[in-house]
Known about the structure:
- The complex is a heterodimer of chains A (114) and B (174).
- Chain A is mostly helical and 114 residues long.
- Chain A has one domain (2-97).
- Chain A is 81% helix and 0% strand.
- Chain A is built from five helices and no strands.
- Chain A has helices at residues 2-27, 31-42, 44-60, 64-94, 107-112.
- By secondary structure, chain B is an alpha+beta fold.
- Chain B folds into two domains: 6-50, no CATH class; 61-173, no CATH class.
- In chain B, strand 2 (127-134) and strand 3 form a beta hairpin.
- At the A-B interface, helix 1, helix 2, helix 4 and helix 5 of A face helix 1, helix 3, strand 1, helix 4 and strand 2 of B.
Amino acid sequence: MILQIVCDVLFLISVVFALAGTLGIIKMPDTFSRMQASTCVSTLGVLGVIIGGILYAAIVMHSASTAIKIGVIGLMILVTNPIGSHVLARGAYKSGIRPEKPMETDDLGRDFDE
Amino acid sequence: MQKTKFSAVLATFVLCFAFWILLTWSFTLQELIAGAVVSLLVSLFAARFFIHVKAGWLVHPGRFFSCLLFWIFIFPVELIKANLNMAKICFGGCKAINPGIVKVPTAMKSDYGLAAVSNSITLTPGTITMETAEDEEGQNWLYVHWINVEETDPEKAGNAIKGTLEKGLRRVWE
């Protein structure tokens, strides 16, 4: 019973962060800021569900294999996600996408553009 | 193309086999043998792309425990702090932002250390590593997109972005 509540609270935390990230994706003004907001979904938005799922599978369902598979899914998301966002952001910058409102500082443009 | 080292093959084999066991989670002899054969084939082909330096780098009590300490205590705290910050910005209507790309120095020398630092930076909401570069003196620089630029001075910005993260990771890779 208590465990059920703990799992529910973890799911709720994830939902809140996923909602924040989604709001950010819709309302942010430029590509890079939108990408920043999306990181919120793929870190705490996923981790809460993963930890809650592991607890639920291990203690309520008594199924070690399910718990471990959920853990592997979480690990893979955490390992692959930063590489994806790095490549997307860099590709967007290299293909000439710039925010409408000039950035505070742009050291990358200063050092690599002529 | 460099020669495939035995230690690299062994390390890749252990990783593949551990992954197989985690995914199947059944300990009958047939499954274990099939897993071992597949992992051996995969590791023979993939080892030279996967491990470039000493394969037993983490088999060292100090490094191993600093690695655990980093991933269990230091990194989650930073992650949660950054997430709360980002959630506050998003629920506040996305007005309080001041995006920019800053250039920060990093103390890391090896490829793996650089990869660990830049991936940790990208994983915390609010910062994305966009490029790494090395200057003439061998100092490595990271170009980081930052949602809310507070500092434009490289040293201070570096401390604000990755001060604690790098302190934790330097014990593993330097």
